[in-house]
Amino acid sequence: MEKIICERGLGEILNKVNNNERLSLEDGKKLYECDDILALGYLANIVRNRKNGDNTYFIYNQHINYSNICTNLCKFCAFGCEKDSNLAYEMSVEDVKQKVRERLGEPITEIHMVGGIHPDLPFEYYIELLKGIKEVKPELHIQAFTCVEIAHLADLAGKSIVETLELLKAAGLGSLPGGGAEVFSPRIREITCEKKIPGDQWLEIAQTAHRQGLYTNATMLYGHIETIDERLEHLLALRKAQDETNGFLAFIPLAFHPKNTKMSDLSRTTGIDDLKNIAVARLLLDNFPHIKAYWVMIGPKMAQLALSFGADDMDGTVKEEVITHMAGAETEQGIGSETLIRLIKEAGRIPVERDTLYTTIEVHG
Ligand code: V47
Question: What gap in Å lies between CA 210 and CA 147, rounded to an integer?
Answer without folding.
Answer: 12
